[in-house]
Write a sequence for this structure.
């Protein structure tokens, strides 16, 4: 069965690009506009990998990650944070919140797939 | 890098989404920037601004819009400092932010249209931004795109010792995945170190106990191997050793994005140019779903209508009637669904006004606050776009001409700060946009004097207050004592009225000297379909827009009086001029109905009422508006045409035209105004007879005005 990725981003452009790239590579993709909606999606669908942006309205990425990790069923779900080049700070904050790794924006489709494959169980 | 994945997927198809998103984000950004206040820092507002700039930057980076990325990066860094309180939000900083927003918007526009950005565009603002970020002067360079690790061509042997810390699993990292990644790099041998494994009873399944040592034969570089461990390097002890000597580190390849004049630059410039700018509407998915459901229903109804009676006893006629009823209901709903797709909240226009008010009032030294309401009222997308200019102009006018200087306001016993209230409401088939200020109001004497001096009215004209207010809409009229930079740009209220009329709207003024003015723009909910009253005049069919109809009645003969220049009808204490449509349009033939004819009372944009005399009211229904301008010269009194159910064409009346044609002919017939004629012709007894007659008149149909 295809692995399912949840992409959480308030930018439709980003969500579309992530979804397009991953779907082309055979992943199943579900989307959410912010952390809060992301939690809603997780409540109703099985997800193998989560990719989240940091800056989002309603619930930011870090809070979202903490909420996800706090739930036992998501203890070992890989979570990738979208960061920008040079923001070591964001990576560290992401790690502290429980993220598995990060993807640096802007990314090529190849790079996105590489990182998702790297953490995808 | 994995080679078994599809390569170079074309992400250019998401450009449209990106610009679409920018179009949505930028007005909000603009409005938020204009509310940045040094005295009251609003953290949520700053966060929203940051997010907007950040998302534009991320998208721009994905499509390689270099100038946009560079600028957005600096702007973002500035906003980040403001968010973290590393930089204080002073009035100067707020101004830099507002200007940065402008540059950002221009750069987005240039990227979208593919126009060349002039050398050094926005550089001054960016320099200010950078000076704020780094007062010491070290430029906040945009981080360079990391050069991809050079691949080593020679086979090498590596020994890797990987000892995870106990907490490795807490971030959902997994040694097995690392082994899988390493295996992609070349030939791999794995040795597991189980010495850390505790007794089963004390084993915590959520902790990592196993260590690994690998020997890898690969063409990969040290950096490639390190990359495999990049997510775990804080959660493990890692030793990577080369058996054979490593090749020398290659020099970093400079970022192609930043290399001016290179082939890469040329390529990206041409790809920026390639961007087209189609117009998109973003639609709530629920609305599209509803639309699809409706189409489904239509298909079922169609099947019902075309079905042959297969069973004896099926009543085909009943079925057809039922089918036709359902079809009508479904088409109505389908139409509403389609219209809903084009709907946009008034917020999209209102949001742009904050800034205008702020900048203009600062410039003029006035204190003005903009209050909006009904921001969520939905308006057709085309109309929304057409509204921007008129509203901008009227707000400019209000601030420039209407609102007094603070000291004058205080002297007049008003609060120092003026309020402009911009509101949108939906009433029946119309949207009402009201721009209301508590300024000085329209000075009727001044307006009249100006109009006389400009030769717009005769010096001896006796005009009512409302008629004088109407003069501000006359072409070439401007109340400003001198042309100001702010609103005297040769664009007057006549243009505003024309713009609004072009989208089928009307504008009303109401002003009290010293109390303020209000302008109400009434526009149809949508452009394409209108509710109308279908009437017959000597066999010809016309459509009167329903929104303008006040009531319809069959008057008593006694109610109608001839005055010099024409007939009037007395209804509810008002004299209303009668306009005989058959005369106006020169329709030959006799009325099929015996007298008295039917009168449809209509109200035009300036509140003038008139009674249109018709022979028959055929009914009220929806009409699809067809413009005649492409096929015929404009006919005064006719707004357009529609096609009736029987295939015949009916003309849609332009009531403003009709009233002005009628009043022009009236003026030819009489020297003084209509108002005076009433008094001259009717004595008190006649007046009361008229009033009684009007009370007994039989209303035929009454429509909400």
């Amino acid at each position: 069965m295809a692995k399912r990725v949840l992409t959480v981003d308030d930018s439709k452009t980003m969500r579309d690009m992530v979804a397009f790239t991953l779907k082309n590579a055979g992943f199943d993709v579900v989307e959410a506009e912010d952390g809060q909606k992301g939690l809603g999606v997780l409540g109703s669908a099985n997800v193998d990998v989560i990719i989240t942006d940091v800056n989002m309205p309603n619930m930011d990425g870090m809070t979202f990650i903490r909420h996800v990790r706090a739930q036992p069923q998501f203890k070992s779900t890989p979570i990738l944070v979208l960061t920008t080049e040079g923001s070591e700070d964001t990576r560290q904050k992401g790690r502290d919140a429980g993220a598995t790794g990060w993807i640096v924006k802007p990314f090529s489709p190849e790079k996105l797939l590489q990182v998702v494959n790297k953490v995808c169980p | 890098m994995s080679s078994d994945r599809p390569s170079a997927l074309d992400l250019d198809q998401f450009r449209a989404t990106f610009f679409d998103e920018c179009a949505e984000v930028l007005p909000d950004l603009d409005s938020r920037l204009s509310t940045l206040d040094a005295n009251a820092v609003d953290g949520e507002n700053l966060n929203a601004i940051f997010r907007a700039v950040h998302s534009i930057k991320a998208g721009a980076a994905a499509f390689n819009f270099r100038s946009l990325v560079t600028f957005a990066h600096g702007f973002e860094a500035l906003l980040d400092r403001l968010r973290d309180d590393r930089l204080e939000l002073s009035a100067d900083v707020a101004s830099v932010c507002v200007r940065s927003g402008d540059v950002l918007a221009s750069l987005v526009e240039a990227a979208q249209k593919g126009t060349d950005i002039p050398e050094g565009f926005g550089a001054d603002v960016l320099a200010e931004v950078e000076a704020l970020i780094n007062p010491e002067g070290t430029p906040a360079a945009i981080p360079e795109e990391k050069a991809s690790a050079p691949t080593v061509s020679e086979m090498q042997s590596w020994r890797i010792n990987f000892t995870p810390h106990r907490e490795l699993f807490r971030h959902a990292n997994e040694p097995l995945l690392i082994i899988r990644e390493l295996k992609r790099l070349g030939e791999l041998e794995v040795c597991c170190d189980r010495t850390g494994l505790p007794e089963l009873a004390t084993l915590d399944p959520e902790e990592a106990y196993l260590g690994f040592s690998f020997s890898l034969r690969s063409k990969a570089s040290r950096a490639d191997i390190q990359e495999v461990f990049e997510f775990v390097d804080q959660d493990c002890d890692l030793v990577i050793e080369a058996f054979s000597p490593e090749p020398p580190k290659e020099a970093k390849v400079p970022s192609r994005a930043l290399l001016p004049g290179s082939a890469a630059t040329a390529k990206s410039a041409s790809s920026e140019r390639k961007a087209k700018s189609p117009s998109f509407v973003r639609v709530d998915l629920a609305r599209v779903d509803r639309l699809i459901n409706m189409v489904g229903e239509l298909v079922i109804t169609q099947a019902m209508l075309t079905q042959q009676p297969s069973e004896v006893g099926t009543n085909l006629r009943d079925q057809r009637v039922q089918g036709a009823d359902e079809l009508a209901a479904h088409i109505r709903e389908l139409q509403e669904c389609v219209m809903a797709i084009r709907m946009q909240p008034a917020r999209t226009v209102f949001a742009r006004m904050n800034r205008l008010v702020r900048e203009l009032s600062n410039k003029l030294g006035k204190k003005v606050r903009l209050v909006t309401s009904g921001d969520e009222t939905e308006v057709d997308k085309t109309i929304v776009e057409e509204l921007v200019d008129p509203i901008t102009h009227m707000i400019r006018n209000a601030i420039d001409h209407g609102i007094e200087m603070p000291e004058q306001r205080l002297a007049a016993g008003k609060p120092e700060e003026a309020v402009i209230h911009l509101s949108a409401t939906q009433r029946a088939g119309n949207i009402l946009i009201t721009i209301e200020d508590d300024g000085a109001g329209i000075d009727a004497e001044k307006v009249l004097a100006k109009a006389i001096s400009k030769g717009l009215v005769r010096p001896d004209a006796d005009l009512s207050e409302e008629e004088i207010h109407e003069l501000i809409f006359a072409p070439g009229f401007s109340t400003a004592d001198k042309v100001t930079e702010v609103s005297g740009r040769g664009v007057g209220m006549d243009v505003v009225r024309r713009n609004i009329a072009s989208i089928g709207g009307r504008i009303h003024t109401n002003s009290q000297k010293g109390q303020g003015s209000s302008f109400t723009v009434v526009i149809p909910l949508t452009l394409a379909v209108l509710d109308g009253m279908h009437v017959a005049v000597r066999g010809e069919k016309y459509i009167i827009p329903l929104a303008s109809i006040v009531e319809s009645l069959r008057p008593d003969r006694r109610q109608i009086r001839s005055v010099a220049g024409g007939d009037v009808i007395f209804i509810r204490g008002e004299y209303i001029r009668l306009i005989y449509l058959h005369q106006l349009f020169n329709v030959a033939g006799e009325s099929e109905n015996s007298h008295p004819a039917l009168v449809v009372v209509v109200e035009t944009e300036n509140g003038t009422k008139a009674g249109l005399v018709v022979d028959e009211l055929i009914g009220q229904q929806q009409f699809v508006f067809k413009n005649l301008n492409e096929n015929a010269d404009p006919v005064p009194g006719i707004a357009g045409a529609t096609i009736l159910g029987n295939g015949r064409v009916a003309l849609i009346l332009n009531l403003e035209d009709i009233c002005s044609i009628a009043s022009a002919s009236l003026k030819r017939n009489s020297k003084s105004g209509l108002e005076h004629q009433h008094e001259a012709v009717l004595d008190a007894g006649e007046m009361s007879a008229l009033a009684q007659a009007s009370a007994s008149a039989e209303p035929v149909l009454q429509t909400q005005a």
Chain A is about 45% helix and 20% strand.
